[in-house]
Amino acid sequence: MIDNHARSVSIVRTDPFVRWPSRAACAILPPMRYVAHLTVVAGLGAVLALAAAPALAADSAPNAKTAITHADAEKAEKLVKEKKVVVVDVRTPAEYDAGHIAGAKNIDFQAPEFEQRLGALDKGKTCLVHCAAGGRSTRSLEVFKKLGFKEVVHLDGGFKAWEKAQKPVEKR
Question: Do 135 and 55 belong together in one domain?
Fold first, then answer.
């Protein structure tokens, strides 16, 4: 049995007292990137087959640990200016059109295709997520985690905090 969550090694084999030609073993090899299957075939000796198993690799697991941090408007502006983040605005298109952070990608949290559109982003890049006041963007953090994003920065207070701090706003 393979336990992906515990990252344990499991070995399955037949009764040890059965003759060699009918014994088989299966194990996960460190660092959990390959599946090995060892079979003893009558007259041919041991045959070892390795197959890539990227779904078992920790770095490709969709539930890999997502680092979530929080930023006020000052810190968020610095990250945006330094181009260290992809800004994800989870408000409705109407809210976005009324004013948004320059370069922000509008992915409506309430839209049925939210998860699909979010999943199309580069998961290795740090995202700065916000909504109007923080409610929808806070709820969206679970989706970022589910999709396996490496790092997400939450703009505390949302776009209202950004405007209150008199940060630059782009309008359509």
Answer: no
131 catalytic per annotation: yes
The helix/strand/coil state of 25 is strand
State how far the Cα of 9 lies from the Cα of 50, in Å rounded to an integer.
Answer: 15
Classify 136 as helix, strand or coil.
Answer: helix
Q: How many domains does the chain have?
A: 2
Q: What is the pLDDT of residue 63?
A: 53
Q: What is the pLDDT of residue 40?
A: 40
CATH number at residue 112: 3.40.250.10
Kindly list the averaged pLDDT for each block of 10 residues, start to end, along the chain of length 172. 41 42 41 38 41 37 79 98 97 98 98 97 97 98 97 98 97 85
Look at residues 88, 90, 116 and name the one whose alpha carbon lies nearest to residue 104: 88
Given a contact cutoff of 8 angstroms between Cβ atoms, the answer to whether 32 and 58 are in contact is yes
Write down the catalytic residue from 28, 118, 131, 155.
Answer: 131
